[in-house]
Amino acid sequence: MKFINSIVNYLWKIPRKILYNIHKINLRKQIRFSEVSIISQNCIGGVIYSLIGQEFLSPTINMFIEDDNFIKLINNLEYYMSLPPKPLIDNFIDPINKSIKYPKICIDDIEICCLHYKNCKDAIDAWERRKKRINFNKIFVIANSWNMHEDKNKVELICRNSKYKTICFTYNKYDYDNCIQLTGKQWTLDERMIVRPNITDFKPYSAVRYFENYINIAEILNEYE
Fold first, then answer.
1. Can you tell me the mean pLDDT for 149-161?
2. Which of 12, 63, 116, 220 is in the most buried spot, having the most CB atoms within 10 Å?
3. Is the pTM of this model over 0.85?
């Protein structure tokens, strides 16, 4: 069965690429407004910018920020963006899954996990370059419950107290209007309590990513017009 699935996935690559390009073109035609800075708790912000073909107007690209670190960042965004990041550790090893390694940087009292960077220097250089592009008048926050370890109090702090337009993807059900629960039997939590499949993954045999089933990107961005 695995062999068959591998063959099917291989054969699907070319048509998916074609359909994905068509999807991107159609989506970009719908977006009337740009210059929105997406402050995201995980990699979804960078995926959205790539999908809509716009410059990264946020430093939170290819990183994830857990628990109180993200809450502090959102509650005092201009303060943290005024400070230079510092290297914390070049090769942090995840205590649960030791095959996962990444650098960590810090800004004052918050830690940032730079999952897709080789070292702290690369992560800091990217952060400093992109933070200069932030549009503080047009901030859109994307959080998630699993990077807050399904802590209801932390989810509430993000969903109720953020002064910016905010949505929060959740694994469990939370009674806040801006929470978006992932529905369906395909969703699980791995040993690190991270949702699987990743919401930025493509749906099986589709040119659309999972999160696009739950939010209309063009509609959200056009609200900032």
1. 94
2. 63
3. yes
